[in-house]
Amino acid sequence: MFLIVGYVIILASALGTYAVHGNLLALWVPLEYIAIVGLMIGYFVASNSIGLIKATVGAIPGVLKGSKYNKAYYVDALAMLFEILAKVRKEGLMSIEGDIENPEASPIFSKYPNIVHDHHVIEFTTDYLRMMVGGNLNTVEIESLMDVELENHHHEAAEPGHVVGAVAGAVPAFGIVVAVMGVVNVMGSVGSPPAVLGKMIGGALVGTFLGILVSYGFVEPIGKLMEQKAHADGTIYKLIKMVLLASMSGYAPQVAIEFGRKTLGAHDRPGFTELEAELKARKGK
């Protein structure tokens, strides 16, 4: 939503102030628009693998949506982990074998459909719970494995943002290319009247204007939002990591989820008493 609002402000600032003393029709040079868009697409395709192209195109619609990882989601995640770990403490590790093998049918996991339907999150959780059930755990080694997996996940999640950022960095140069092409065209008409030459030169300079405006006003914000979203979406994995590691280290479920709660930012973190009250309320259901 704010992306669209930002675009409107950018266009109003750029075109609105120009319209006060200029003719907006002078900026309408369709071939230059086509050339810049074509150069952008060409650069994007030429500099990335097919997998990264698909990932980037697939990630673009996500910038228009808010992150699903909000306070309510984190409370659900903490409550789910608490229930699992409480069951382990009461009935033993083998008691959760059925839950982790078929989360959709699990009496615990099925209470949290938003998490169960998040394939990567539920897979990350159940994989490490499965290792716990397997026994003979070395907490240091498990933490190292988690760190490697999270680093790979963050790298993959951040790549689309880096790709869009690279395209944004190239667009001003493409604007110069289009402007130079226009100047070359002007050089072939040096015998024309000054009024005609002035219009042609103005049209050529539109390429530079477009390149800078499209880059910093439209493409780069998308890249920045993608990077921010990738960073925000990684928090849930840190939460799960800290809770499970705390449990592996022998802490009680109530203490283990506190480790996870502390990984959250101020805007998404439930208060200690708030989370405690939520867990008690859910336990009573």
Attribute tags:
285 residues; mainly alpha; 76% helix
Strand content: under 5%
Please give the largest β-sheet: none
Write the element-wise H/E pattern from the N-terminal end onward: HHHHHHHHHHHH
Number of strand elements: 0
Using the CA coordinates, give the radius of gyration.
27 Å
Number of helices: 12
Structural class: mainly alpha
| Weakly predicted, low-confidence segments | none
Mean pLDDT: 87
Backbone shape: elongated
- State the share of residues found in helices, binned by percent: over 70%
First and last CA, distance: 37 Å
Description:
The protein has twelve helices and no strands. With 285 residues, the chain is mainly alpha-helical. Helix 1 (2-21) runs antiparallel to helix 9 (194-233) and helix 8 (139-187) runs antiparallel to helix 10 (235-248).
How would you summarize this macromolecular structure in one to three sentences?
With 285 residues, the protein is mainly alpha-helical. Helix content is 76%, strand content 0%.
